[in-house]
Write a structure and sequence with these properties.
With about 240 residues, the chain is of the alpha/beta class. The chain has eight helices and nine strands. It has a domain of about 70 residues.
Length: about 240
C-alpha cells in the first residue's frame, strides 16, 4: 500500500509571467519519500521545486498540501547557493536563525529556546563548529550545511533542496547526503532534492522524478540501478 501524498500537483502549468516552462504536470508526492529530481539544464527543475514550495504560483492547475497532524505541512526550502545575496553580512548562526521567522517576527527578540533549537539544527548538520564565522567566508560545503540548518529551524515536514551538492568536494557531498538521510529517517521528513550527481544520491533515494522536454516521468529505486536507462530518457550524461 503506497503512502498517502503530502503534495498533489493537479494539471499544473508553471512558469514566469505568462511564459510557461512546465505544462499540465500531475504528481502525487508520497509522504516520507526521499526523491531525486533529475533533468538537463533548463528543463525546469528549479521552477518545479519553487512551485512545490509555494514560492511560484502555478499559471494553471492546483497545488494541494495534505495536512500533517491536522496542520498544513511546513516546507523547508534550500535554494541554490548562487541565488543568495553575495553581501549576506551575517554569521552562519544568524543565517540559520532566519529559519525561525515563521514563528518569531523579524526584529523581535528570539527566545532562548528558539536559539537553542537553531544550535541543535547546526549540530545536526555539522555546522556548529563554524557558525560564528561570517557566512560569506565559508566554503561551499559549509554554506550548504548552514542553509540546511536554516531550513530545519523552520521545523519542516517537507524539505525541498535545489542542487545541494553541486560545486562541493566529495567529503562534503557525503556529509550532506548522510545528514539528509538521517533527517529523513529520524525526523520522518519528506525530501526532494535536485541534482545532476546520480552516483552520490543513488544509495539514499527511493524515488526519482525526471523532467524532460516539459514532461515529468516517475521512477523507483530500481530505475536508479540502471543509469543507462535514465541517461537515454534525460538525453544527457549522468555522473
Amino acid at each position: 500500500m503506497s503512502a498517502e501524498p503530502i503534495v498533489i500537483l493537479d494539471h499544473v502549468t508553471a512558469g514566469y509571467g505568462q511564459r510557461a516552462v512546465l505544462r499540465d504536470l500531475c504528481l502525487q508526492l508520497p509522504r516520507g519519500s526521499f526523491t531525486a529530481l533529475l533533468g538537463g539544464n533548463g528543463s525546469g527543475k528549479t521552477t518545479l521545486l519553487k512551485t512545490m514550495a509555494g514560492l511560484l504560483p502555478p499559471l494553471a492547475g492546483t497545488v494541494t498540501y495534505r495536512p500533517v497532524d491536522g496542520q498544513p505541512p511546513v516546507i523547508g526550502y534550500v535554494p541554490q547557493r548562487e541565488a543568495l545575496d553575495p553581501l549576506f553580512l551575517l554569521s552562519g548562526f544568524e543565517v540559520a536563525l532566519m529559519g525561525t521567522y515563521g514563528r518569531v517576527r523579524p526584529g523581535r527578540r528570539v527566545p532562548a529556546h528558539e536559539c537553542e533549537f537553531v544550535w541543535q539544527c547546526l549540530r545536526l548538520t555539522g555546522a556548529d563548529g563554524f557558525a560564528t564565522q561570517p557566512f560569506t567566508q565559508l566554503s561551499g560545503g559549509q554554506k550548504q550545511r548552514v542553509l540546511i540548518a536554516r531550513a530545519l529551524a523552520s521545523r519542516p515536514r517537507l524539505m525541498l533542496l535545489d542542487e545541494p551538492i553541486a560545486g562541493i568536494d566529495q567529503p562534503a557531498v557525503e556529509t550532506i547526503m548522510d545528514t539528509l538521510s538521517t533527517l529523513h529517517r529520524e525526523w520522518g521528513l519528506t525530501v526532494v532534492l535536485v541534482t545532476h550527481n546520480l552516483a552520490a544520491v543513488r544509495p539514499y533515494v527511493d524515488r526519482v522524478l525526471v523532467l524532460r522536454r516539459g514532461a515529468l516521468y516517475e521512477g523507483t529505486r530500481q530505475d536508479l540501478a540502471a543509469p543507462e536507462k535514465l541517461a537515454r530518457l534525460l538525453d544527457f550524461s549522468l555522473e
